[in-house]
Prior knowledge:
Blueprint: E1 10-16, H1 35-55, E2 60-68, H2 76-89, E3 91-102, H3 109-118, E4 122-128, H4 132-138, H5 144-156, E5 161-168, H6 175-186, E6 192-197, H7 205-211, H8 220-236, E7 240-243, E8 246-248, H9 255-261, E9 266-269, E10 274-277, E11 280-284, H10 288-296, E12 302-307, H11 310-321, E13 328-329, H12 330-334, H13 342-354, E14 358-360, E15 364-367, H14 369-373, H15 375-383, H16 390-397
Amino acid sequence: xxxxxxxxxxxxxxxxxxxxxxxxxxxxxxxxxxxxxxxxxxxxxxxxxxxxxxxxxxxxxxxxxxxxxxxxxxxxxxxxxxxxxxxxxxxxxxxxxxxxxxxxxxxxxxxxxxxxxxxxxxxxxxxxxxxxxxxxxxxxxxxxxxxxxxxxxxxxxxxxxxxxxxxxxxxxxxxxxxxxxxxxxxxxxxxxxxxxxxxxxxxxxxxxxxxxxxxxxxxxxxxxxxxxxxxxxxxxxxxxxxxxxxxxxxxxxxxxxxxxxxxxxxxxxxxxxxxxxxxxxxxxxxxxxxxxxxxxxxxxxxxxxxxxxxxxxxxxxxxxxxxxxxxxxxxxxxxxxxxxxxxxxxxxxxxxxxxxxxxxxxxxxxxxxxxxxxxxxxxxxxxxxxxxxxxxxxxxxxxxxx
Length: 402
């Protein structure tokens, strides 16, 4: 297997929490907001960025990611101005990967050209499905036609990489129907596909519907069959699975997310955004109003901080690496783990290998196909009673929020 290059620098993430409407499945930090709220939030974002630049001027960044929510509810000119601010305040590599998430219906060719000219070279398009019934079930605000038009607009605008987000495991999904939908998607020739299994989270409208008995999700055997179809169809079109929920053409992997999964350095701006620098991780308050109010009062927006040391740091690093199909090299893991934790970590990993969840040799450790299906169990086994941390799930699920 061709191995992914190690992250060459840190990542910058900017969160835009506003959406046209809240999807039925969405448990992410997003909301419907007024134009006044969006404007106030933008002012707070700019101030947070300017303040952080003074402290982290020594870092060099190789990726920028505008996520949400729906960043493209803001005008292309506004997003271009914000990108210009980041370039003026931070050291950003000339070859940086610059991604923006977008929902169909919120972008057009002219807007995408404006973003491309500002430096955006990667689009993550929240298609989720090309079936009208499925889009209604998910509570999406766009149609299949909107999705196709948005995809073709991105191609006409000549963005370097176009990624399509999909959701697998809806109540109506069976292998034949799912295969037909995937074939429609790959006929578009995307550079990258993110395919997330549907999860029904407490507090969402979908959860309330499930509690009322309005639908039943596919059983485990069907879920496995759907994943088999996903791997078969995407592989037949040159899309290689490189992470539990992500497939790409060679060299088109999302470098920003790979940095997450290598437990790298990143700065996050906006409500609910997380940062990780030098073994310290912190997250901003999630509430949009509170976030903007703190910034306006010249107060820190940070709501939670933790120091990653000892066993927690060792186990989390191994867990994140194991999201990648290629796994990791022992030497890379040991470079990130304190010496006194290595024997225990090796023992835990060997236990996972004995249960068929990972494979181990003298140089590499990688998840098995079964291990990729049971990543949450790997997390529980490594962290013990603490269970998987929020950050264990966060990078995988960000794009599905669009």
